[in-house]
Amino acid sequence: MAHPPACSTPSPRSLPAQPSPAQTLPARTLLAVFAHPDDEAFGNGGTLARYAAAGFAVHLICATRGGSGKITDPDIPADSDRGVLREAELREACRALGVREPIFLDFHDSGRFERLRRDDPKALVNVDDLDLERALLPHLVRLRPTVMLTFDPHGIYGHIDHLKMHRAATAAFWSVGNLCERPPRRLFYSVMLREAMAAMQELRPASPLSDLEPELYGVSEASLAARLDVSAYAEPKRAAIRAHRSQVGPASSFANVDAQSDAAWAQMMREESFTLGGLRGSFPAPPLDDLFAGLEP
Description:
10 helices, alpha/beta, globular, Rossmann fold, seven-stranded mixed β-sheet
């Protein structure tokens, strides 16, 4: 049976045009796929900083620039271009974490509730799932990640854009196997433990986690594929969260996050948890403290 080349060029009739694959790439590459600026910081900032500090190539794909997000800092003019503002915040967050410059897919933030953009064809809520997958594939071919991260099947708290990117990233993890001889080995979903979600709800009753059923949106200990100790990277993670100034201002549910001594916040800065979404090859006994455990260089 013929095998695909190391990285073949997708057919232009089915996939968008893409750059030629790089000639030399790091042996260990981590790729995070999310929807909005700040998605990378809260649940995964420690993990991204940990691997960047260890010399891994850490990349972030962000589907939108977060143009529908609320401005929660009164010092930021209310009429600011939110997409421009939040792109700059994400670039600052990436510098704080030590990861590569973010890659934007140039779709639009769908918003939520009364702000849902049903009339915007580029808003993720209106984009066909296969088109999102096709938008991701050239980047997977070019970057050749060893490990991928994305949202869990509930999108953490049910945001439609999170759900859309979960589906697209999961689908692309599998379909890129038709384009590369060495496709990604593992796909992880960023998750919150049931008990941690309940504790966060108690701490922040007005947060996006409010009114969610922890038994549905959280996961059990037995479900974890990896639990990473990121305590050494708490400060880069805090800096990345602070970089999203428009989202963590005094009017946000995350106001004064650095002043919190609550156990739920301490846990969030100490550990980050993942379930397994896809696998090529063997997998050591979970839960791992290294997403690359057992993988050859």
